[in-house]
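cron nightly-structures :: item 1 of 1
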Amino acid sequence: LLRVLDLSWVKFEGGKLPSSIGGLIHLRYLRLYGAGVSHLPSTMRNLKLLLYLNLNVDNEEPIHVPNVLKEMIQLRYLCLPLNMDDKTKLELGDLVNLEYLSGFSTQHSSVTDLLRMTKLRYLAVSLSERCNFETLSSSLRELRNLETLNFLFTPETYKVDYMGEFVLDHFIHLKQLGLAVRMSKIPDQHQFPPHLAHIYLFYCGMEEDPMPILEKLLHLKSVQLTYKAFVGSRMVCSKGGFPQLCALEISEESELEEWIVEEGS
C-alpha cells in the first residue's frame, strides 16, 4: 500500500535495485537521487501509477535503464540519469502528461517522442552528435507551455558549432533558458523568446561579445556567463541596455581582459 518512497543516497548491494520494487504497485512517488544504483529491474514496469520518478542516481559507471518507462503514462515528473549506457533505448512518446522532464538524451530516445508532450513546462535536453539544434527545435514547436528549457551537449560534440537555425521565438511562455552549447556567436535577439527573463550560458566558447545582443532582450532579469562561455578579451555594456537586469554573474572567463560599462547601462 506504500505511496511514497524516497531512497536518496541509499547504497544497494552490487548496485542492484531489488526486483521486489515492482510489487509496490500503488507507488506514486519514487526518488533515487544520489543512490548507488547501476542496474534497474524490469519489474519497474509494474509501477504504472507513478506521478514522480527521479532516477538521477550516483552513477559514475553508465547505468542501463530498461525500456519500461513507456508504461508509466501517469507520470508528471521524470528525471533521467545523466550517464546511461549505449544499450539504453527508451520509448517515451506515450508520456503525454509529463510537466517536468530532465535528462532527456537524443542518444537514448527519439526526438519525435517530445512531439506529444504538450504539457511540458520544464525540459532539459542532452544532444548527441546525431541530432543538431535545428532538428531539435523543429521537434519542439508544439511545446508551447515551456517555461524553462536547458540544452546540454555531450563532451564529444563541444568541438563543433551545432547551433544551426536557432529559433525559439514561438515559446511565448519561456522565461528561463540555459545553453551549454558550442557557438562562435550568440544568436540574434529576434530569435530568442519574447519574454525571456533568465539566461545561463556555459562552455559556449563565444568569440564575439554577447552583450550587444543580450542587452537588447528587454525582459532579462538575470544573466550568467561562466566556464568559458565567452573566450574573447573585451566586453562592452552600452548605455540604455539591460533595462530590467537585477543579477549578472561572470565567472571562469580567463580570457577576459577589459569590461566597459557605459553610464546608463
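cron nightly-structures :: done
The chain is about 5% helix and 20% strand.
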